[in-house]
Write a structure and sequence with these properties.
Order of helices and strands: HHHHH
Oligomer: single chain
Radius of gyration: 19 Å
Low-confidence stretches: 4-10, 14-23
Largest sheet: none
Structural class: mainly alpha
Number of helices: 5
CATH superfamily of one domain: Cytochrome c-like domain
CATH topology of one domain: Cytochrome Bc1 Complex, Chain D, domain 2
Helix content: 40-55%
């Protein structure tokens, strides 16, 4: 009986952990002009105060925040929390960053959060050619 219980528990663990991974690893939507326009509007409403209109982290509140807001103008692969991964940017927007002023935006729809991802990465400088 104990063996059966262990098998059921272990099987449940693997089932739910793989289900959770597959849900969190769904493919991002296609970047479209409409999604970028939506992202621009959401950025201007929710992000510009800290990150600034140019995405350089120099918004009206940005100078007072510790740590300061992310400067999105550096190459995307150099962003601290995402290292060039769209899904990680989505995660930061969704969950925020602990011990910083970056709040979670999980109250926004998934489409709105992806719109913010795509608009935000538009600020990133292209990688330097070698």
């Amino acid at each position: 009986m104990k063996r059966l219980l262990w098998v059921v528990l272990l099987g449940s663990f693997f089932l739910f952990s793989s289900l959770g991974q597959s849900l969190s690893q769904s493919a991002p939507p296609k970047k479209t002009p409409e999604l970028l326009a939506q992202g621009k509007k959401l950025y201007e409403q929710n992000c510009v105060t800290c990150h600034g209109p140019k995405g350089d982290g120099k918004g009206q509140l940005g100078a007072a925040l510790k740590p300061p807001p992310r400067d999105f103008n550096i190459p995307f692969k150099q962003w601290t929390h995402s290292k060039g991964d769209l899904k990680k940017v989505f995660e930061v927007i969704t969950k925020g960053i602990p011990n910083t002023s970056m709040v979670k935006w999980d109250q926004l729809s998934e489409q709105e959060r992806w719109a913010m991802v795509y608009y935000t990465i538009e600020f990133a400088a292209p990688p330097k050619k070698k």
